[in-house]
């Protein structure tokens, strides 16, 4: 190899090494946005009444909100946000 080729290769290697050692601008005082961003494949369907848009809406709601009750093993209802519940004497 010629001297020119070796110098060129060494220059590129040194440049790559020095670029990799750069810490960049990491500002520790950056504020958090506290925003959830969710990518969806279609309209959420919040303004529609058809059943096909219900699935997308429920995926968003369940990602953000906890339910009052959840389904446990064998389909039994277990507490979510609600700690207890019951049926009134008049059945309403």
From TrEMBL:
<protein>
    <recommendedName>
        <fullName>Solute-binding protein family 5 domain-containing protein</fullName>
    </recommendedName>
</protein>
<keyword id="KW-0732">Signal</keyword>
<feature type="signal peptide">
    <location>
        <begin position="1"/>
        <end position="25"/>
    </location>
</feature>
